[in-house]
Amino acid sequence: MNLTARIESDCLAAMRARDELVVGVLRMLKAAAKLRQVELLRPLSDDELLDVLAKQAKQRRESIEQFAKAGRADLVDKEERELTVLLAYLPAALTEAELAAAVDAAVAQLDARNMKDMGRVVQAVLSAHKGRVDGKRVSEAVKARLAS
User: Fold this and answer.
1) Which residue ranges make up each domain of the chain?
2) Could you read off the pLDDT tens digit of each residue along the chain, which spans 148 residues?
3) 67 Cβ contact partners less than 8 Å away, ≥ 6 residues apart
4) Rounded distance between C-alpha atoms, residue 101 and residue 132, angstroms
5) 6, 39, 44, 123: which has the highest count of C-beta atoms within 10 A?
């Protein structure tokens, strides 16, 4: 079962179970996917749907951070629950050791020597591990690796 069909069937199951949180999150996800599909003028592949999912998860993380700064615990809780629903569809995140190994491999492959090469290395790691790692984590790891 591909990712689109899985999301659709889970949305229907959540509707039957009257789980408003899951239904709301999956509807927002489906709307974002539909918007991306209209932009591309073709159906989305699973990789493109993973990009949409990662973008939605990133939005939730940023919202959590902003609401926490503002002292809005109620909204932080809501966004965290929504993020949990989205994370169920993303592949398992890379561990710190896996991320370090991926950065080392990309640095060696691209023969990166200084901070000027940082963008190329970050893009290589992100494209090789789609949906499994956050760009912010990759950027920090690459910066640390190239600085040493």
Assistant:
1) 3-87, 96-147
2) 799 999 999 999 999 999 999 999 999 999 999 999 999 999 999 889 998 998 999 999 999 999 999 999 999 999 999 999 999 999 888 999 999 999 999 999 998 888 888 999 999 999 898 878 888 899 999 999 988 7
3) 73, 75, 76, 79
4) 14
5) 44
77 to 43, 67, 74, 95: CA distances (angstroms): 34, 10, 5, 25
Report residue 140 as tokens.
């920090």
Residue with tokens 């939730």: 60
Q: Cα separation of 28 and 21, whole Å?
A: 11
Count other C-beta atoms under 10 Å from residue 148's C-beta: 5
User: Topology of domain 96-147, per CATH?
Assistant: Arc Repressor Mutant, subunit A (1.10.10)
3-87, what's its fold? Answer: Hypothetical Protein Yqey; Chain: A; domain1 (1.10.1510)
Write out the two tokens for 70: 């503002």
For helices 118-128 and 135-147, angle between their N-to-C axes, nearest 10 degrees:
130
